[in-house]
Structure formats: structure tokens, C-alpha cells
Amino acid sequence: MEIIASPWKRWGKHRTYLNGADETRLGFYDHQTGVLAVEVDSARAELEAWVSQNTTERVAAEATHVVVDTAPPIAAVALTRASPRHVLTPDLARTPGPLGSLYGVPGALALEKAATLPAEQAEPWLMGAAGEQAIAATLTGLPAAWFSLHSIPLGDPDSPTGDLDHLVIGPGGVYVINSKHHPGQVVFVKGDMVLVARHAQPYIAAARRDAMTVAVRLSAAVGTPVTVTPVIAFVGADEVVIKFPPRDTLLTTRGQVLDDLTRRRASLDAATAAAIVDVAQRPSTWR
Fold this sequence. Notes:
This protein has 7 helices and 15 strands. The chain has about 290 residues and is an alpha/beta fold.
């Protein structure tokens, strides 16, 4: 098989795209991470041979799954540092009112933090808030049997995040979704290891801890065990390259989160889901 290599450098990234003679994209090699992303499995051997013959880097891993976010870029969001209460937020039809001050507003904690910081330090927090708003807006597309709550303060000083970005309850179960906004970046996942722009991020451990906290709080409030699945939803990433997924955490993107949630096997009957929704709306559950 003839391999046509097309080097590409932009925005601090360095890749070589590998195409067939008919210009079909077979995969790409990332020179920074050492990842060979195979998109046409029948060409794997030829791509591996090309990498071994044409690069000096060691291939760190072979991607078993490459996720490209199909959602369009998020529109500019009016995030006002001095007055975060006036941030433009989506119409959340099935979201209850605020639990207090800004709570219930997607990105509330990030906005409050950004309002206290100089502009250059506030930018990452504003970026995070925009990602939370994008996922919250997407979740309004869930079917009527599903319910979503946003920016829930945990009241736990040891929590890695301080609040829950999104809590989703429906026939397919209970999910805690952590939004991660990385526009233009490549995310590499190998089990519990997550790399963003070659920097390790503790996303899996934090997601698991939040899910465990929610399971304990909801179980106590309902009076029966509640299983909670941690979810990490990437926003704006060029690609999410998954060598193999973490064993108990769902990885998704803004463009796929609705399908990933609604195609799960039904595990909650309507009465149980309603009971969980009821206690989830009580501030006392989270204190």
C-alpha cells in the first residue's frame, strides 16, 4: 500500500497525516505525544511500518479509538467578570431554580472565581464556564424523561472541584458530568491517564471522587443505594484519542453526550428516578 505523508504544524502542534493513494485519510502520527492514531484498521501494519521507517521517536501508543467532536464551535459567550450574574445562559427547560445566589446557573463557581481575579488569571476560569454552559445547553436536548441540574455546590472543602458541573438523572441512570473545555487541543487517554497538550491532568480521579460523593449524598437522602457514573465531557478539543478507556468513567464530547447517555440500558424506573430528582433539588442534600 502506498502511503502519502503530509506534515502539518500549527498552533504549537506537529503531526504527519498519512493518506492512501486515493487520498483517503488512514491516520496520523503526533510527533509531540508519539501517538499513532489509526483510523483505517486494515492499514495498521503499513502505518506502523511507515512510522518505524520515517521517525526517530518511539511510538508511545496506538489509538484504538479517535473521537472527533461533531458539535460546531461554541459561540462567543458574554462572560462579564465584574458582574457574573449577567452572564448569558441557555434556557434550561428542565432545570430547577438556583440553589442559592448563582447556583443552578451553568459555570456559576467558575464565574464567581473569575470575578475576583485580574483579567489574565481569570481567563482559564471563564473558559471553563463557557464549556459548562455549552454542555448545559446541549443537555436541554435530552428526552422528557431525563432531568439535569447544574453547578451544585458540594459544601465539601476536600472536593477536587468544589461543585458539580452537571447532574443528570434519567432512565439510563444517574450521571455526574464534568465539562472540560480544551479548544483546539488533542486529548490522549490511556486508562486513568489523561494528557492534554502533553500535560497530565487528574480528571479521572476527580470525576470518580465527585461520583462517589454524589452516590453517598443521594443514597442517604433517598434511603436506598444510588449508583452514580462519572462522566467527562470534552468541549472544543480537536480530537480525543483513546488507547483504552478508564474502567468505570464515561468519556464523551459535546457532540456525542446526548447519544452516549440515552443509548444506555434502562436501569431506573420512573418512580425511582422521580425520587432521586426530588432529593437532588433540595439544598440540604448537598450540605
